[in-house]
């Protein structure tokens, strides 16, 4: 299943309701699971981003749907990266001409 890395920031609304963040996270976790994916890891971070997470989803369409479901709550803005496991990357590199 494809792996994704998501970084994000809280919106003004998200900061004003920061105490609800753990509940929003649990809701997002359940939503992704209902779509056939899994939220693997989640970290609150300091610096440019307020959080980072890793997850799996069946495909890009499912991931997009989930991110839109999360985003329409209005508490966060995200940036998503498709992640290729090191072993798969190594195989691709070996196949280069």
Secondary-structure arrangement, i.e. CATH architecture: 2-Layer Sandwich
| CATH fold name | Alpha-Beta Plaits
User: What is the CATH C level class, in words?
Assistant: Alpha Beta
Please state roughly what percent of the residues sit in beta strands, choosing from under 5%, 5-15%, 15-25%, 25-35%, 35-45% or over 45%: 25-35%
> What is the typical, i.e. mean, pLDDT?
97
- From the alpha carbons, calculate the radius of gyration and give it in angstroms: 15 Å
Shape: globular
Distance between termini? 27 Å
- Relative helix content: 40-55%
SSE topology string: EHHEEHEH
Number of strands: 4
User: Structural class, from secondary structure content?
Assistant: alpha+beta
The CATH homologous superfamily is termed Lrp/AsnC effector binding domain/regulation of amino acid metabolism (RAM) domain
Count of distinct structural domains: 1
Strand order of the largest sheet: 2-3-1-4
Tally of alpha and pi helices = 4
Largest sheet: 4 strands, antiparallel
Extract low-pLDDT stretches. Answer: none
Structural account:
There is one protein chain. The longest helix has 14 residues, at 21-34. The chain has a four-stranded antiparallel sheet. The chain has one domain: Lrp/AsnC effector binding domain/regulation of amino acid metabolism (RAM) domain (Alpha-Beta Plaits), CATH 3.30.70.920. With 97 residues, the protein is α+β, with helices and mostly antiparallel strands. Helix content is 41%, strand content 30%. Strand 2 (38-44) and strand 3 (51-56) form a beta hairpin.
């Amino acid at each position: 299943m494809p792996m994704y890395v998501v970084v994000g920031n809280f919106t003004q609304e998200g900061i004003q309701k920061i105490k609800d963040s753990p509940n929003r996270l649990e809701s997002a976790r359940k939503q992704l699971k209902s779509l056939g994916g899994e939220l693997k890891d989640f970290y609150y971070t300091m610096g440019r981003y307020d959080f980072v997470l890793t997850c799996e989803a069946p495909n890009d369409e499912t991931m997009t749907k989930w991110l839109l479901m999360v985003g329409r709550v209005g508490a966060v803005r995200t940036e998503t990266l498709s992640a290729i496991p090191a072993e798969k990357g190594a195989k691709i590199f070996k196949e280069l001409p």
